[in-house]
Queue: 2 jobs
Job 1
Amino acid sequence: MRTISPLHRLLGGLLCAVALAAPVAAVEVEGVKLDDSVKVAGKELKLNGAGVRVRAVFKVYVMGLYLGDKKKTPADVLAAEGPRRFTLVMLRDVSGADLGEAFMAGLNKNSDKAEKSKLVNQMAKFGEFFSTVEMIKKGDVLTSDWVPGSGTVMTLNGKAMGEALPDIAFYNAILKIWLGEKPADSDLKPALLGGKA
């Protein structure tokens, strides 16, 4: 019978400790691994759901939605307290102008006239974020955080895109691109709410 030396036992213990300390990928969608949890504004958020955005026959991006607690309905997501995050990982190259146009179309489809009139300035600034980026490439990561006290903070590959937009109603308007009555992708909506991708 083979004996295990104290050195091997120590190395085995260290490897287990490292494995436990490393972030665990909760889900893999189209080869993209999304972390089980992330920290936003000092609070741990859990992956609520994830899926892929398909436009025509093209897979455009993988999206993950992070919240403080799991939510199963759009209303509950929009009413959630504290910080929130959604992450897009691009599966193909898309021009900043095209992605911005798609987002603005989704905002317009899922916001009523009264909402749009209140949020018009933030919508314009949101559109400007995308005009500053010529191309968003396959593998790029676009993140949008709701940070209480600051606002909507957009980053591309960890670099801030413009200034924070202050209104929670605006962050909810962005989320309604995917969770509203006329979602950008009818299969992605239930996936973000914890259903099957």
Job 2
Amino acid sequence: MNNVNTQQKKKTILTYIYATVIGLLIVACAVTIAVVSNNNSSKLNVGEDTPVSANTYIVPMRNYTIQKDYSGSELQYNDTLKQWEIHKAIDFVAVDDLDVLAVADGTVSNVYTNYLEGTVIEITHSNGVVSIYKSLDSDSVTVSAGDQVSAGTVIGKASDSMAQELNNGAHLHFEMTVNGVKVDPNDYLSLGEK
């Protein structure tokens, strides 16, 4: 009987320790998320006098479907790499029109090609905003670094050149940054109901 009581006490103590550790981990995670959120919100502030609104930018493809939406924290499955990962971009597809459009007036700040991202165009806009277009067809690119573009200018065509998303087929992998920090393009584009 004494042995049974000792085992019950040990189980009770271990359960208490386990619950305490889990509770502390939850609190630590909550504090970390709050700190990161506060830090990111200060980094993403584009200026008191120049707020960026959703109607400032146009959608980068016509007659599009969103193949994979932005996710800054929830994992999404990458069928090409066979792994779960965050996806800080929006993947657009449009079967009948692969033209990719500049989302706002700006200056082409970079055009390059690499194996993982395919052909990439970066356009710098006002207020530290940069739009980034990946998985473009290299032969379709119509702009060079230094070119001035207007919202709606065709800058290239979507393709399957992005090796890390090869199984997605021809698509535009679209990212946005503000002052060098990736942001959710949904906050800037009017995408309607999804």
